[in-house]
Every structure is written in C-alpha cells, then in structure tokens.
Amino acid sequence: MTALLKLWGGYLRLTARWPSIGSIVPFLPVIAAWWLVTALELFPRVFLPGPVEVAQSFVTLTYKGILPAYLQDSMVRLAVGAFWGIALGIPLGLLIGLSRRAHAVLWPLLLFFQAIGDIAWLPILVIWFGYGLVTMTFVIVYTVIFPVVLNTVLGVRTIHVNMYRAALSLGASRLRVLWEVVLPGALPNIVTGLRNGLGYGWRALIAAEIIVGTSGIGFLMFDARRAGSVVEIILGMIILGILWYIVDSWILAPIERATGQRWGMVMR
Amino acid sequence: MRLRHQLIAALVFVAPFAVLLALWAVLVPYFDVNPRLFPHLGAVVEAGSEMIQDGTLFAHIGASLARVIVGTVLALIVAIPLGIAMGVSEAVSLFLTPLFRFFSVLAGIAWIPIATLWFGYGFGAITFVIFNAVFFIVAYNTLLGVASIPMPVRHAAASLGAGRAAMLTEVLLPGALPNIVTGIRTGLGFAWRGLIAAEMIATNVGLGYMLFVARDFYRTEVIVLGMIVIGVLWLLLDRLVLAPLERATIERWGMVQRA
C-alpha cells in the first residue's frame, strides 16, 4: 500500500513538473485494456482490431503517403475555413455590437441561421457547388462564424461605457476608439468564440468529409467503413482526437488564457 | 403596458424574417432562378403542406426526435452518476480528466463510421452516436463540476454530520449542476449535428435522410423545407428546454459563487 502511495506521489510530482506527461500516462491503461480485450478475442477481430494492427496501419498509410496527404487536406480546409470565418465574423460582430439598428435587423436572423446548423446545409451546397473545396469551406465558415459573431457582440457589449467616454474625452477619433477600446476590450470573448467555433468547425469538417468528401481524414474513415476495415476507422478516430487535442490545448487554450488574463484582469 | 412592450419586441424580432421572406418571394421569380438551384417560396409551402397531409413530415420529425430523446436520456442516466463518482476523489479525477477530454473531442460525428459497422444501418447506430456525443461531454463536465466544488464546502457539510446520501444530494449534485447543464447544452448541440449527419448516411427515415434523398432528385424545395424545420426545432429545443434549465441552475448557483 505504501509503495503504491509512494508511486502515486512520485507521479504527481512528475506531472507537476511536466504537465504533458499527465495528459499521456492516463492513456496507457486504456491502451493496455484495449490490447487485452483484443488479445483475448472477446469480440471478433474484424469488429475490434488491436492497437498493434492500428499502429501497423498507421505506418503503412504513412509510408504510402496517403495519411500525410489526407491530413494536409483536412488541415488546409480547416485553416481556410477558419480564416474566412474570422475575417467575416469579427467585423460582423463589431457591427452588430456597436449599432443598435444592425442588432435589431441581424440578431434574430443570426439566431435562426445558427439553429439550422452547418450539416443541414450540405445537401443544397452539393447541388450548388458540387463536391469540393468550396462546399467544405462554406460549411466550415458557416460553423465558425456564429460563435465568433455571437461572442464578439457579447464582448463589445461588456465594455464599460466609461471606457468609451474616457477615450473620447481624450480626443480619440471613432476609428481609434474602435481600434484601441472596442477591439482589445472584446478580444477575450472573441478568442473564446473562436475556440468554440473551431471546435464545431472541426466536427463539421469531419461530417462534410464523411458525407461529400473525396479526401481527408473523415473520408479515410468512411472509405474504410465501405471496405469494412475497422483498423483504418479507429486509426482515423485516434488521429482526429490527437490532432484536435493538440490544436485545442496547445494553441487555442493558451491564447485564450493569455488574452483573458491580460484583459480580463484589467476590467476587474 | 407590459403586454404592449412584449408585443413590440416580438414584432421587432419577427420583422427581419418577414423582410427575408418577402425578398425570397419577389427576387427568386424576378431573376427566374432555376428551381433546381433554389426553390420558390410557394413550392416550399406546397411541399410542406403536402408532406404534412400525407404525414411523412411528422414521421421524419418523430423519428429524429425519438432518437435524440432516447440517446440523450440514456447518456444522462449513465454520465451524471459516473461523473460524480469520478469527481469525488481528486486523484481519480486528475487521472481521468485527459481521457475524458480526449473522448469528448471525438464525440459525435467521428463515431459514425464505426457505429454503422458495429450496429448496422438504423436506430442502433444513430442512437449510439447521440449517446456518445452527450455521454462524454456531460461526464467530463460533471467531473469538472464536482472537482471545482471548494473543499471547505465539503468539509463543512461533513462536519455538520452529512452522511453520504446527504452529501450527494445537498453538496455534490447542486455544486456540479451548473457544469452539468453546460455539458448537456454543448453535448446536445453536437448530438443534434451528429444526428443530422448520421441520418444522411445510416437510415431510411428522419430529417437528415429527408434532406439527403431530396438532394438525389434535386428537390430543393424539400431540402429548404427540411432546413427550416431543423432550424425551428433546434430553436424550440434551445428556448423551451435548455435556456430555462440553464437559467434555473447556472444563474442561481453562479450568483452564489460570485458573491
């Protein structure tokens, strides 16, 4: 018992020093259990292949160049979609947040179109644009834009009116108020919106690739499903999970924390 | 007086939609848009009344809603107790947090291919996808919620003689409730999208299926009708179920923490 406790204490100290270890170690028992289940053949191999087979297929697919190519396709789509989502979403959010009229006109429409959801657009997008990058980009932009706009509006609205007054009385022009008060003030919310939006956009991308795709990780999974190859499906799922984990907790979360801390603290 | 204000507010809310519909009714015939690309307003209304009369619209809606309800209720029954059990011990929650984060990242759509392989095309696969989307996110959020209850609160309850049952119902559950509700909301959002996506692939009834089949025949009026129905249904779900739930819990307990 004491040995176990010592082990646990050592583990805690280790993860305190290198937090990334703490996010990897918990997966080891899961993988071990997975290996055990498949080794005992509790389920037919066809339905649940083991970790070794998945690792092998990872090596083969990487060697053949399919995996890197698909991965690149997916990431490019996500990046293009995210770029346009941000480029359109932030100005739109600022407009709705600052102008009462724009808010009255656009807010109800925004809520409704958000409710339709990205994936429901797929069938008609396929009719309009065919199977390709335009359809996918549209779906991702559509998904990313709503959380960005809604959160930007929220951010603009939470800026204290005294901030505007202070800036204006110091002689700031409207453009400078926008640039130096509104935008920085709304930034923490914008980043939160972006993080949510990309989370949804990521899923939308996978759905789009599954349903209308000709390449990409989602397509890899669905293609494998057609061929009945569970190994590649599981491989696809693992890659999706790891990829998003990396993007979210190593890129987006730190940005969110940094902006939130910097600007959030000031407000309080 | 208050009624009048509400009426005006409602009118202001509806007005943009009226303008949009009017534009649709005028512009589409004016520019002579090919109905295979975008339908006339009249055609959508016609398709709607036709599908209501022969009952297919309600069959699709009913099938979709039944899947969402079954999957969500099952997921909640399992996820909330599990989340609380995991959150009680700091060591366990520390260890399991990365796992649940990983799986909630995967939740929903990514499971469609393997779900259809395991359960075949049909009710099972789709319910599994919804279960999945809700389960991991709710369990993860419950775990976070329980873990974020300040230790002194738990100690206080224990020193006042709270037994295990009282601790559960009076401290852990209420304390985690705001997080649980947030989880339900996010999870349902993913589940709803997953539902539509899964129905496009894996079934022969439901709203997603209705859209996808209409695409094969270039029946844009049915597609647009389906999109409107999906939007309205989600709005109703959000306004009538999720928002009140959130108001009742997050605002009530959120306030306590802020003070």
Protein model, in words:
The complex is a heterodimer of chains A (268) and B (259). Chain A contains 12 helices and no strands. Chain A is an all-alpha fold and 268 residues long. Chain A folds into 2 domains: 2-39, no CATH class; 51-267, MetI-like (MetI-like fold). Chain A is flat and about 75 Å long. Chain B is mostly helical and 259 residues long. Chain B has a single domain (42-258), classed as MetI-like fold (Orthogonal Bundle), CATH 1.10.3720.10. The longest helix of chain B is centred in the last third of the chain and has 39 residues, at 164-202. Chain B starts with a helix and ends with a helix. The model of chain B is unreliable at 255-259 (pLDDT under 50).
Specify the number of helices of chain B.
10
The tally of strands of chain B reads: 0
Would you give the CATH topology of chain B?
Answer: MetI-like fold
What pair of chains forms the biggest interface?
Answer: A-B, 56 and 59 residues
The named CATH superfamily of chain B: MetI-like
The fraction of residues assigned to DSSP E strands of chain B is under 5%
How does the overall form of chain B come out from the CA principal axes? globular
CATH superfamily of the largest domain in chain A: MetI-like
Report the CATH topology name of the largest domain in chain A.
MetI-like fold
- Give the C-alpha Rg of chain A: 23 Å
Instruction: Briefly note the structural class of the backbone of chain A.
Output: mainly alpha
Order of SSEs of chain A: HHHHHHHHHHHH
Helix count, DSSP H or I runs of 4 or more residues of chain A: 12
- Name the helicity range of chain A: over 70%
How confident overall, as mean pLDDT of chain B? Answer: 83
Radius of gyration of chain B: 23 Å
The count of domains of chain B is 1
Give me the secondary-structure category of chain B.
Answer: mainly alpha
H-E order of chain B: HHHHHHHHHH
Structurally, the number of domains of chain A stands at 2
Residue stretches of chain B low in confidence (pLDDT < 50, at least 5 long) are 255-259
